[in-house]
């Protein structure tokens, strides 16, 4: 089995991901690449892209006192076929200081086909100075599938607030689901 990557694993490079899910490709792609063939690399990229889905994950921190967190936040997307595994939300595309009060952060998550998105698990590791977090909602857009789902939360992920949970399983709000041409 051949699992080429050809992508950065760095917060400050490419799409900011430090973990990648790799898909196996035909042996012929790997053998061609040893000849330094740029065209094969492009074809390889398309081959891998065809087997994966890119999700744009928007996370809204509530506008409450001490709502932001410095803890490390993670998410798992669960579909009808599979799940993404735990994905760290490290590099927000719009805010250097992520998960601050009243702000929306945007992340990219790539995964093999997990089927129709059914639920998510989101939480944090409770590490850092200010760890409690008030999560307003999560929105997950899959442009290649033409679906955008909203996962309302409106609760604390804090050991000393609400029910003390620091991770939650959230289901999409059917009425807030948008379908469009992929």
Automatic annotation (TrEMBL):
The protein's matches in Pfam families, at most eight in alphabetical order, are given as: PLAT (PF01477)
Coiled coil (residue ranges):
none
Domain spans labelled PLAT: 1-23, 53-171
Q: InterPro entries attached here?
A: Inner_ear_hair_cell_LOXHD (IPR052970), PLAT/LH2_dom (IPR001024), PLAT/LH2_dom_sf (IPR036392)
SMART domains reported for this sequence:
LH2
Name the record gives this protein: LOXH1 protein
Can you name the source organism? Galbula dea
Q: Which gene produces this protein?
A: Loxhd1_3
């Amino acid at each position: 089995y051949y699992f080429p990557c050809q992508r950065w694993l760095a917060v400050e490079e490419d799409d900011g991901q430090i973990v990648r899910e790799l898909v196996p490709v035909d042996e012929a792609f790997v053998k061609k690449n040893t000849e330094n063939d740029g065209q094969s690399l492009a074809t390889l990229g398309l081959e891998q892209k065809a087997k994966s889905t890119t999700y744009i994950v928007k996370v809204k921190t509530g506008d409450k006192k001490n709502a932001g967190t410095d803890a490390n936040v993670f998410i798992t997307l669960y579909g009808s076929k599979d799940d993404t595994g735990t994905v760290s939300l490290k590099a927000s595309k719009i805010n250097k200081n992520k998960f601050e009060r009243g702000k929306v952060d945007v992340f990219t998550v790539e995964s093999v086909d997990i089927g129709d998105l059914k639920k998510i698990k989101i939480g944090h590791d409770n590490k850092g100075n200010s760890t409690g977090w008030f999560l307003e909602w999560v929105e997950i857009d899959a442009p290649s599938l033409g679906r955008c789902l909203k996962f309302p939360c409106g609760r604390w992920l804090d050991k000393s607030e609400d029910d003390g949970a620091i991770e939650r399983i959230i289901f999409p709000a059917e009425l807030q689901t948008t379908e469009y041409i992929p």
